[in-house]
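Researcher: Let's try something more involved. This one mixes different molecule types, so please make sure each is placed in the same coordinate frame as the others.
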Amino acid sequence: MLYKDKRPLIFFLVPALIVLGTFLYYPFVKNIINSFYEINGLAALDGGKFAGLQNYKNMINDPFIRLALKNNLLMMGFSVVFQVGIALILALMVDSISRGAQFFRTVYFFPVVISATAIGLMFNLFYAYNGGLFNQILTRLGFDPVLWLSDKLGIYMVSLPVIWQYVGFYFVIILTGLNGIPEEIFEYAVLDGVTGIKKIWYISLPLIWDVIKVCMTLAITGALKVFDLPWVLAPNGAPKGLTHFLGTYMYFKTFISQSAGYGAAISVFIVILGLIVSFTVNKLFKRDTIVY
Amino acid sequence: MDNTAISFEKQVRRTKITGIAAKICIYIVLILWSLTTVYTLFWVVNNSFKDKTVILTDSFSLALQPVLDNYINAFGRLNIGRAYLNSFIISGTTIIFVMVLAGLAAYAMTRYKFRLRNTLYLLFAGSLLFPAFSTIVPIFKMVYDMNLVSHPLGVIIPQTAGNLSFAIIVLMGFMSNLPLELEEAAFMEGCNVFNIFFKIILPISRPAFATVAIFTFIWSYNDLFLQMVILRRRETYPICTLLNEITSQFGTDFGLMAAAVTIVILPVLLVYLFLQKNIVKGLTAGAVKG
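Model: All components are placed in one shared frame. Result:
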């Protein structure tokens, strides 16, 4: 009876809906529309010329799109193998120790809350040719300094901090999953003679498979959204646009070379790619969920 | 997540890592990985207290005679104090907007049954998948038309919209677990819906609001993309935007860079150490938001 009268709904819901509608849903739809227009310069946002699928056709022939896409795919691979992989190993290890678990959790998670900008600046200090941390270590050990952000190494060096930053994030998710496995299961396992690595392989991993799947989906879709760190470390895809990702290239096209319509098409492409990829991951890693 | 404390005790029995050698190996690996955070941060902070020429040749020694020049430079030449203030204004206001709007909406979504309820929920959840790239240009256009370019509100409103869906979903999760009895009793006593919301629901939901406030702070404070697009005048730059500019301008001044990084990380570190539990919980619960 208390909630029978629906009139207060207006007071409760309308403010949030106005903000979301105006600054989230409307721009999202408008952006899709923009992607079918040729818009040169942000000042001309109203007066674009209808271009049909031209922006999308141009994307197919743009070598930088291919490069950026390749970099994003590379980043996805790294994210799954290293981010989730390292996180899983660390989580299994922390789950098996009795002292210091809380300390490791605090330390591993901390990079997640630091801004990508600060981490980018920090890695700039590490990568600097003259007197950067990495080259100082190399010179101390008697090696020649290395040009870290070179044509060849650049993309790996830009990926490294992105990967490093989020290991702690997946670590915490996986550790929480491991902690949720009921004690009895392990006790029965020990009675059955299952111990050590076998215990991990036959019990822990199958039971947290869902959690790992979530992590992989997040890592892969996250890899599509990278922007801040590459932008700070290697502005405009330096060197020579080789470290562009779809996100940074979209920013570059829209706000620097002023092709807003083309930029819109790139961002629609990012959304579609994200949907396809998360759908595929979920299909690919589908396995019966074990309920316990 | 709630049972982690108990689980950590459980591990003692669970593990049975036999062999001291295996145990030592595990600790070595764990400590090595923690050094990637602890040592790198230490390296930066330590060097921020050295002269910029010293860092280039000798960055490993302890800064036993700390030099404050870099910090004086950061606050003087770069005016980082002003950027702090801008960040505080933007993030603070965004947090308030998000909490108010999300609180009201979440209450309606959990307590009222109405026809569009499920559709709305899908809209909220779906919007978590929108990357910032896919809304930025129309947002810029609107902000421009409203004359809010280089104005804090030009960042605050879109940031509020960007964090709102997630906040609503977190608050809904909390509120739907609150027992109805209290509200019914209050209704019998003659309270109306608004009294109930402000006097009962809000105070009880404080922990959930804390989580929302923390992650909104972290996302808002750390955001670079939107701020870079909207804020065009240097006096209006918050910390992250200013830092991004420093890189291109003073990138070779290692001392200044190290001091700048320290200054940006400090507030986040303090918030993190005090509110660690809520943060880890909030951010992993909101795993979908990017």
